[in-house]
Amino acid sequence: MNHRARIEETASESLPQDVNELMAAVMGLPENYRAQLGPIMQRVAESTRRRKRILGLVQDALGQLRLDMKYLVFDLEATRRERDAFQGRLEREQE
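Request: output the structure for the sequence above.
Response:
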């Protein structure tokens, strides 16, 4: 197996099945068609990988946001409990 084939196999692992099939079909074309469609196919593959990376980053950020919101709600509830307890002590002391 040559170096180019290994790179293409590794790169194709991160692509959806239909894009992999399209790449295989383009690679099976005669050289003159492959020369025309190859660069276009590479751009499609790269934009698909980029979208997949961006989607992963967005999903990670949303997960972190959800976690941060849970911590903030917990902190808010704890602060309210502390406030209520302090107000109750103040009212008892003033009586």
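Helices lie at 3-12, 17-27, 31-94.
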